[in-house]
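Final report, section 2: Outcomes. Of the targets proposed, ULP_PROTEASE domain-containing protein is the one most frequently requested by collaborating groups, and we therefore present its record in full.
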Amino acid sequence: MDTIEIDKILRRNHTTRGAYVGCFPADRIPTLTRPMPHCMVANVDSSSAGGSHWVAIYVQSTHAVDYFDSFADWPPHSPHIHDFLRRFHTVNRNDRALQSDRSASCGKHVIYFLCHRCRDGWTLRRVVAHIVEQKTEPDRLVSAFVRTHIFDGHAV
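The predicted structure is given below as tokens.
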């Protein structure tokens, strides 16, 4: 998925649009100017690169943030994302990889995470546990979610 697809989905979705700020390259992540909570999607590459992997950031307060990476890479490979996260006292992150190395489903993973985080108020840990508990392989689960609930026109 590219920036336009992710941005279009999350801006139009009734569960995310109130909190969603946008989809950014790592070097263009905005400063904290919106009311809390709010969320965004960031690519681990800077604006001068082509873009290789999407992560989700859910800012709970000026002190706490959720960092969701479907590969569970920590610390973030991007110095820009790492610097952004250092502003927070508490950084909640997933330590379990959900996405296959052979998959390009990171955009669908961040959409799945932000929809459940915004709609259901699930913590990052709860979203990850829910994905792991399913009998369906994670990449297929998030792909089916986006296809069924987003592209088929159903409300999420």
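The CA atoms of residues 75 and 128 lie 18 Å apart.
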